[in-house]
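Co-fold these.
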Amino acid sequence: MKQEFTISIFSENHIGILNQITIILTRRQVNIESLTASESAVKGVHLLTLVVEVTPDMVRKISRQIEKLVEVLKVFVHTSDQIIYQEIALFKVSAKSIMTGDILERMVKHYNARILVVSPEYIVIEKTGHKSEINELLEKLETYGVLQFARSGRVAITKQVKELTHYLKELDEASRKTPGEPVLN
Amino acid sequence: MMTDKEVQETMERINGTEEITGAEALLRCLIEEGVDTIFGYPGGAIMPVYDKLMDYDHKLKHILTRHEQGSAHAAQAYAMVTGKPGVCFSTSGPGATNLVTGIANAFLDSVPMILVTAQVVSGLIGTDAFQETDILGVSMPITKWNCQIKNAQDIPGVLAKAFYIATTGRPGPVLIDIAKDAQINKLQFRYEKCTYLRSYNPNVPVNMKAIESAAIMINHAQKPLILAGHGVLLARAENELLRFAEKTGIPVAVTLLGLSAFPSGHRQYAGFLGMHGNYAPNLLTNEADLIIAIGMRFADRVTGNLNDYAKKARVIHIEIDQAEINKNIQVDIEIHSDAKIALQNLTAMVRENSYESWIREFRILDNIEYDRVIKEETKPASGRMRMGEVVKLVSDMTNGDAIIVTDVGQNQMSAARYYRFSNPNSFVTSGGMGTMGFGLPAAIGAKIGAPDKEVIAFLGDGGFQMTIQELGTILQYKVPVKLVVLNNEFLGMVRQWQDMFFEKRYAATELVNPDFIGIAAAYGIPAKKITEREDLEESLKEMLEAEGPFILETFIEKEGNVLPMIEPGASVSQVTLNYKG
Ligand SMILES: Cc1ncc(C[n+]2csc(CCOP(=O)(O)OP(=O)(O)O)c2C)c(N)n1
Ligand SMILES: [Mg+2]
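Predicted complex below.
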């Protein structure tokens, strides 16, 4: 059964790493539902967050192949219930239609959105949340004429306790061990 | 009297502050890494490197092939027989793209290679300059790692990393693309070998718990079978495999690239696996209650139909590349480790044992294969010669001691089936890619890597012509390789499939061949053509006794089929022994 997985990839900041990752996904005909790339909290380490819809078996295969890339430090795979995640969306709505009565105010409050810009022609609303919530708001706003709509990829934080810095330390220690040193685990 | 400039240069050299060009730095990196042979082909963008090479020819021997693909295959074979990485030079654009088949071939067979391609000057990169090609983009899916150098001072660091990555873990080809200005500009040279990258950890520690569980499983198995692959040779673990096998008494089957990892004459040798492999190990894979897979990847040519593969067996998989574990088949115990280390630990923990009646099952099937296939193939009563009989005779006459190189097709499968290997790393073939044209240049690389060994290549009449220009390399460097052309006047393996699966409709597989002996003569290579089996032994003797290179063209049964065969989609227990069209 296909399901949604969030793949968090920590990598060195090497030119071409994104290309290497997409080659792996493309070969297996896996579509990227969403993608976010930025520097992580650790300086020099990049974090790419991908959302894919695949079987558990497939996600294991592709994540091992991604982790095999020389510049990739660590790959984490999570189902949606194992992470706290958000997307951000911006809506540009025609000012005329929406400024009647208290529609705008009510909607912003109800959807926990935020007004970023107000001009005589348009209003820009920001909404952070899950994809479904953003879609719902989009649907509502469409009755007033959405001039532009842009949505980010997913950003996610894991619920697990072990943090990246910890893994980095472990990787460091493991690489410095001589081959064959037995490890009990 | 020294000039001021010479004095200054001498002082700089003494103080270690001397500046050298990027081209020279590249060559010094190679020397630091123990390289002494380079295969390559020059061109505009790499001229600074070739120019410097003239000053280093006492330390770095350069072999000019006749095509870049030839240099890549030769370097791969050199790597396979020496255990050192193969090194290639090529120019930008067409030089680089001509390497692609060779790189992909080395990638699929996990052979360490350093491919240095030149690139247009850095200011022109991205502008579609003359002979500019995005070789990084092109080679990304077929290299273990690649990198472009635009600044001369990056050369030592990147080269050190390249060697480290290519040769450790699961080895593979690494491509380094160097802009022409980086070859010309100067740097202060200091070389330090790379031994650590935080994002790349080839020294996987052995999980002793997994080893322990594996030992228990092995000690309790009734019908265990070892499947040994190329990983055993890459880890230089053939002695460890032998000790493990002899202590446990378990029969050992090998994959195509695992051939020569275990002596073919050993009483526990169970044969060669896969589509054209031996009857016993294929059939008994489905009878085994335990499979111990070592340095192999359950490729489709080995497993046949996965839905009916080793269903009675539990599986222990010893493999350095974790992405290969549970990729094609689900395993019970995963030992993510170098084969040598895993086997050392495992051997210490298993008990001494023997499996006489289980091994007898192999011998019974071996006899069936002999009666139904091998006898007719190696001792035919009439008709044109057979590939099997030629290979068998070569095997007997060389005592299984030669390095055997093959091209791809029936010639390859016959060599794999009928040569009896005694030494590790003595079989050089194109496995994962099945690249026609591999054989001739690979034979050259193997001979240069192992000059004291007899190197014999079995080539099809089709594959021979794919890289036949490399006869020029043999001529120029007097490489004493022995080429046995198995001429069936067909693209034999494809014709066999047409025979078996396409109602004998021989679409585009019949070859009208040139006079190979005449071609050999043009290259100054002694050659002989034989059509009768009475002449075979005598001619082989002449070939083996020849001091220099020799080409023996043998006329082979036109419509011979390589059997047994696991037909596409069939399972390892559905082996076709006889096929009569
Ligand atoms: C570069 C390349 N092109 C095509 C093929 C497909 N192919 C596999 S075997 C074969 C026939 C080889 O003919 P020949 O070299 O005469 O060897 P034979 O099988 O007759 O021994 C072909 C065309 C291939 N493996 N490699
Ligand atoms: Mg042929």
